[in-house]
């Protein structure tokens, strides 16, 4: 469907190792000119089919990049000798819409075989999810390669819990040279989408082991959450992360100021004195939030770890060729 005549010249390179170049805009302008159009086209179709998929796909970049860099490791399925990141505590029964990435990859392989990495697909799809939801659009830097392995343990050691407080989040982001402002802005990814009751039961009924609800929750909002997530509920029931869960805007920060944050790790951004000033600014100035969000996404997209890499043909599995022929970063 997306095939172009010049792409036939690339077929011979399917099993060649890929040496990474510095990330840059327009990386595929010669090797796969329609790449960015293809990604956005598939994302538009996914949005029509299921609007929630945009938020789900957008979050995949964060969960990928914080674990050994932006390398597509999150997308690998488990094998007989590898338990990957999909089984990690912060991901299992939570991350979704991997099939959208599969659809994007299939379309790109049809147009430009073995050219566009799965890691770059995640970065492009996250950008498009934001833009298609009414948020900012921006130029992304591309040229990543895909990892040859994944590790549940590595993800468990890094990814934060919904119970995380602002201090632990600040310290985590600092490990990646991301500032307090970056933390608050990137938390604005929760402007769209939903989360499970599982993530907030402790807030509603046993905050900090007190046997009581989190006092930071606005009372009327807490009543709504109690109705959504009563004790004994199926904890996979979901609720919106802000009052406009299909629109990427600054309502998320307005809700935090009003004590209506769904997750503890979100509401703590307003209760903490170090993060509160940014929440206030973003709640009043959507343009400032958009600007800071784009800056944070670009910085997060630069996270890299030196390791062997390739361009996977299927994002779920490593290509079937010997590791020792691969070139590292």
TrEMBL record:
It catalyses: 2 a phenolic donor + H2O2 = 2 a phenolic radical donor + 2 H2O. Its main location: secreted. Ca(2+) 2 binds at residues 242, 244, 249. The record marks 59 as: Transition state stabilizer. It is an enzyme of class 1 (oxidoreductase). Keywords: Calcium, Disulfide bond, Glycoprotein, Heme, Hydrogen peroxide, Iron, Metal-binding, Oxidoreductase, Peroxidase, Secreted, Signal. Substrate binds at residue 160. Ca(2+) 1 binds at residues 64, 67, 69, 71, 73, 85. Residues 22-319 form the Plant heme peroxidase family profile domain. It is found in: Secreted. One of its GO terms (biological process) is response to oxidative stress. InterPro entries: Haem_peroxidase, Haem_peroxidase_sf, Peroxidase_pln, Peroxidases_heam-ligand_BS, Secretory_peroxidase. One of its GO terms (molecular function) is peroxidase activity. GO terms for cellular component: extracellular region; plant-type cell wall. SUPFAM superfamilies: Heme-dependent peroxidases. Its EC number is 1.11.1.7. Binds 1 heme b (iron(II)-protoporphyrin IX) group per subunit. Its cofactor is heme b; Ca(2+). The active site is at residue 63. Disulfide bonds join 32-112, 65-70, 118-315, 197-229. Removal of H(2)O(2), oxidation of toxic reductants, biosynthesis and degradation of lignin, suberization, auxin catabolism, response to environmental stresses such as wounding, pathogen attack and oxidative stress. These functions might be dependent on each isozyme/isoform in each plant tissue. Belongs to the peroxidase family. Ascorbate peroxidase subfamily. This is Peroxidase. It comes from Gossypium hirsutum. The lineage of its organism: Eukaryota, Viridiplantae, Streptophyta, Embryophyta, Tracheophyta.
């Amino acid at each position: 469907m997306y095939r172009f005549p010049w792409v036939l010249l690339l077929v011979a390179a399917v099993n060649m190792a890929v040496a990474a170049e510095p990330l840059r805009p327009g990386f595929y302008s010669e090797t796969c000119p329609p790449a960015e159009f293809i990604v956005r086209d598939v994302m538009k179709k996914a949005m029509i089919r299921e609007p929630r998929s945009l938020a789900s796909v957008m979050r995949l970049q964060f969960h990928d990049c914080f674990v050994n860099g932006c390398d597509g490791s999150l997308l690998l399925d488990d094998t007989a000798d590898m338990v990957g990141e999909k089984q990690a505590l912060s991901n299992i029964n939570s991350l979704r819409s991997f099939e959208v990435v599969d659809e994007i990859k299939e379309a790109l392989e049809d147009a430009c075989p073995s050219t566009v990495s799965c890691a770059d697909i995640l970065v492009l799809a996250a950008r498009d999810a934001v833009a298609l939801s009414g948020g900012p659009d921006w130029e992304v830097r591309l040229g990543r390669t895909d990892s040859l392995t994944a590790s549940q343990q590595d993800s468990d050691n890094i990814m934060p819990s919904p119970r995380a407080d602002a201090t632990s989040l600040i310290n985590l982001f600092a490990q990646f040279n991301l500032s307090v402002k970056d933390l608050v802005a990137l938390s604005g990814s929760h402007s769209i989408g939903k989360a499970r009751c599982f993530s907030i039961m402790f807030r509603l009924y046993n905050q900090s082991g007190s046997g009581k609800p989190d006092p930071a929750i606005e009372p009327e909002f807490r009543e709504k959450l109690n109705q959504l997530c009563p004790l004994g509920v199926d904890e996979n029931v979901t609720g919106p992360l802000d009052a406009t869960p299909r629109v990427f805007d600054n309502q998320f920060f307005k809700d935090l100021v009003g004590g209506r944050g769904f997750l503890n790790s979100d509401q703590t951004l307003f209760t903490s004195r170090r993060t509160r000033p940014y929440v206030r600014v973003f709640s009043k100035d959507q343009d400032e939030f958009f600007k800071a969000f784009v800056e944070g996404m670009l910085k997060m997209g630069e996270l890299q770890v030196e390791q062997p890499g390739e361009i996977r043909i299927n994002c779920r599995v490593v290509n079937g060729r010997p590791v020792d022929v691969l070139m590292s970063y």
